[in-house]
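MODEL INPUT / OUTPUT PAIR
PAIR INDEX: 1
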Amino acid sequence: MSISASAEQYDSLLQSFNMERIAIQKTGMQTLGLWALSNIAIGSIASFSTTGEKQAFWQMNAGWNIVNAGIAGMGYFSQTIPTTLSASIQEQHSIETILAVNAGLDLAYIIGGFYLKERAKSSANPERLQGFGNAIIVQGAFLFAFDAILYAVNVHHGKELMSIVQSISITPQGIGLNITF
């Protein structure tokens, strides 16, 4: 069974879709922010109570997450609500692309961490490179899981947008939205 929807109902569907997308992004940024602040606090404290490789590990965790905290803050507070279907599609595509690229970068971070660990074997300061390498591997692994999960959630949510697009019809009487249930 299908019914025709008014322009107001269409706008409501689109706004609801966009509000949910923003809620997903804000939850993601809260998760990243909590991870970052926890790593900054624990890493800062632990770096003063350890030495050598462990100290370098905690220092890198704290330093790395200053950047993550900035990204989380900017991502949380910079959300905007698109008002058109075109802008909604573009925003959805953009977030999916960013997360896919980030997942690739996360794998590069992990590889970079292993590279530092390998370089530590011939370094004048092996403990520092070993600690930094281990921290970068941990951070890269977390970020990869984070980006992959957020990507999957966004792709799943994006399917709702496609159903809105597919329900639009152009007839001699005008443009309409058919809702099937």
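PAIR INDEX: 2
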Amino acid sequence: MGCDWRTAKKRYEIQQKIENGSPLPLKKHKSMLDPYTDIIDAKLEIAGITASAIYHFLLDTTDYSGKYGLVRNYVKKHKDNKPKKATIRVPKEPGKIGQVDWKEDMTLISKYGELVSFNIFLFTLPFSERKYCSLSLDKKQDTVINSLIYVFNDIGGIPKEIWFDNMLTIVDASKMGQHDRINEKIKQFAKDMGFNAIPCRPRRPQTKGSVEALAKLCDRLLAYNHEFETVEDLEKIVETFNKGINNEVSQTHNRIVNDVFMYEKEYLLPLPNNKIFSSYLSNRQTRKVSKDSMISYKGNKYSVPVKYINFDLNIIEKDKCLYIYDNTNLVRCHEITQNSLNYNKEDIKDILASDLLRNSTEEKIEAFIANNLSQYDNLL
């Protein structure tokens, strides 16, 4: 038959196995992926890595010319065979734990087409799932402290422990790998309030699952695109949202959150005296300067120089006056009124010179202000 004896022997052995009912050996086909499996196995050690990420890594760093499907099938097969890391659930005790995080960099569009970017401070009590949300235009340390004081007043007590995400306003970056990495100001604040500040492990969202779930709930606010006019309107929307979610049934215990909280409240630490609160509490807020060189406060607008358009400025209300700061530098002081538009005369000149009366002399601008300011208000 013109074949080698070894070929005949191989066919003979296969025929014997067929007659005896034994399984036949599977022929192993070479794959284009074979030279790269060691690289893929190493990358599979990285938590959360995807087949797409590995595929593009191979394209960028090796001479792999195969298709994505080969990589995807290999990753699926070998990823599923890796031992899963179990998560130990911490028993939930009433009044023991609070969790803090941010819902960062949300953006909504006002009725006038203006983009408003903001953050939401998040706090939960995992036992009752009691939640607290507040809108903030910054994530500074004073804002975190102020927000916590508002939380404590809202819930009428303080949990024994508060778990923080690894935000730079809470932990020292130089101590990121250490257990004791809470910065000194937060340590002192925690001591004065009576709670223990605990940083969560990096890249372990399950350790603060309750507050992570609250961050996802905040996506409901996206429905308010084009439904508000000012930042104050947004603050009221967030307040209404906060009240609503605390009157819903939680999937954790299948009861209304506020009902369970009334039981947990008895286990919270008492509030410190007002003197300690006031030593930390700042009435500073942040506002973004709009394109008409105004900031909004309590539904009315107050002018600032044109150079601050799109800047975030700090505001403080004191003695019926609104003080506007760029960090520590005083930008403007306005008497608080019920007028919808409140201008400083120098700001009016600045605004007109930048737009409506560009290239006009100061005398012409002064004359326009004297005769036509009401018309300018209408244009705005």
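PAIR 2 NOTE: The two ends are 99 Å apart (CA to CA).
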